[in-house]
Amino acid sequence: MITRKALTLADVQAIAAGAEAEAKKNDWKVSIAITDDGGHLLHFQRLDGAPTQSTYISQGKAKAAAYARKPTKGLEEVIGNGRTAFLTAAAVSDMVLLEGGEPIIVDGVCIGAVGVSGVKSSDDSVIALAGIAKLGV
Prior knowledge:
- It is a single chain.
- The chain is α+β, with helices and mostly antiparallel strands.
- The chain has helices spanning 9-25, 54-68, 72-80, 87-93, 121-133; strands at 31-36, 41-46, 101-106, 109-117.
- It has five helices and four strands, in the order αββαααββα.
- The protein is globular, with a radius of gyration of 14 Å.
């Protein structure tokens, strides 16, 4: 049997609080989604004023980061570098292949992901990483 770490409710709450604090510090109106390693939604929040479409996009970014076990910035770059066939993966799985999804890696294993949407994609990543940093990993 393999034993590995998993996100607890306390972990998810710490990530959410860290991400929300970063967004509010910068007056960024975003949606924040946190998933387990299988891309299943554990937490979602849409800050006041966040764009409606950010609800869907943040969840898709988190799912993509969890599935790929890597930041979605790299997935976006694959498409930007001409491998547009990769878009079919997103079409069948509700993944959003835009920067702003970050995996949560502990001891070399993905245990979940955070997806953020609502501001520039690079700023979405800053928020996601600020949340993950609250785990101290």
